[in-house]
User: Fold this.
Amino acid sequence: MKLDLRGVSVTLDGHPIVHEADLRVDDGEFVALVGPNGCGKSTLLRSIYRALRPAAGLITVDGDDVHRLPARQAARRTAVLAQESPADLDFTVAEIVSMGRTPYKADAATDEELCARALERVGLTGAIERIFATLSGGEKQRVLLARALAQQTRLLLLDEPTSHLDIRHQLEILHLVRELGIATLAVLHDLNQAAAFCDRLYVMDAGHIVAGGPPDQVLTPDLICQVYGVRAVHRPQLVFERLKGE
Amino acid sequence: MTTTTRQSPVQTGLVPKKRRASGFPLLIAALAAAVVASTWLAVSIGAVHVALPQAWGIVADRLLPGFLTDGTPRTWTPVQEQIVWEFRLPRALLALLVGAGLAVVGAVLQALVRNPLADPFLLGISSGASFGAVLVLVLGASALGGLSLSAAAFAGSLLSLALVYTLAQRSGRLSPSRLVLAGVALAYLFQAAYSFVLQLAQSGRAAQQVLFWLMGSLGGARWHMLPLPAVVLAAGVTYLLLQHRPLNALAAGEETAVSLGVNVHRFRLTLFVLTSLLVGVLVATSGAIAFVGLIVPHAARLLVGADHRRVLPVSALLGAVFLQLVDIAARTVNAPQELALSIVTALFGVPFFLWLLRRRSVDRAVSVT
Assistant:
């Protein structure tokens, strides 16, 4: 068991945003968290990486309460790809990726090697000295993923990692994450993509987790209608896949 | 993942030709040499001319008595010695300290609020410090319970930072844009407050002196003023250099820093206290000098990139040299009248800054690692 949430409630400015959420991500699992805008997905995610402290409930990673762990210990267990871009201070790709080593004792040789390997993993070795701000959206996400890899955690949290990306780069980043084999919890918007990539998914609505399980069991037309207020229909349609060898 | 069939934008892009690993130590050495050279020049230049070798001799003679006097005859007059040792050297050293300190504070604030426009002025810290200092200057220390100039300036800068910090807080998160807005508003408020105190002040002459001092001046520098800023600066820079990784993480974003294991609340509070302490101490010695904290960190980043392990030392040295040259100009351009330092920093600094902005896309002079 990697990540376990029991009865987690989160309030923001006195407003309850998440109600008694139960959620679990096992070793090597890719779990998606979906739901309409404003349902509390990102808030729940933020409470896992300690940006918010839950009002009630318990969040454990590898059996330890993350909100009781020292900050650096917690950061060695959980890496995040949040929706936040660095200040306009011209960090290079190398500098961004090496930030992943912040929770560890500095060791130039190890750090450099881990960062190089992380960049290789996301296919951006050649970009190591480029300025982060000048990269395309897809490249930026891959650099931030490399930073998360350099952090060497066994749990990865993704907050809408594919937003602002075109279809090819969406698939690219999801495949990359999938192939890592790290326990992953991803907030996703596209239900078809969530269904295609995840092992299990949770559906949130108005702060409650209303369903959880394998996508084909959870994403029923009834549930989608109830949560999103739209009709789900089967129609033959184009399905997008990456080219072989990419 | 390999990109074989299609050429990715990365491969066509600006991949640097070669790394210059030795660039950074060389740059530091060059800047250190510039610090020494500019200080030497500052000690020599002035109404009473002291030739460079003589200026060197006076300082060496004082620092190492007996070391040089044995063989070499003293070629300078007692007046020259007094001017160099009592007035010009402390002034030149103070210029270095203040320049370095303001530049470091600017670099930290820009990372802290994730805004390249941040500097002690924009966030109201300088105005707060000036307010505290003006109260002491106009009303006298006794009226404020014996508070020293430094302490009053520090209290003012801390008060304004605390206000800005509280105002910018929203549901436990610090909004950088609110921070800047609150800072600008408070800067105006404190400016209005000290202008009001000045207007109330009886003596027009004292008010004029204070106004001149508020624009920045090192004219009052004496030896006894140096230890406090020197100690605070040394301690501050040491702490910041040890914390360069959390600083980088903070510049990457509050949530990112949290996820990287930085105790953001505590760290940010420490940085706020440290920067207001530095600004308070510096403003108390030299008044409020504009632009150094804004321009110098940017120049440093253009040279060495955004990593604070490099930005902080380069900013400190660059700021020291810059303010030394500015003070030389302030003393000589319109001699015997002295210009306020903020006038010179703006006249030299702003065109330089605009030029830097124009060539922003150019490769850095020193590459990473």
Summary: Chain A touches chain B through 55 residues (CB under 8 Å). The longest strand of chain A covers residues 15-25.
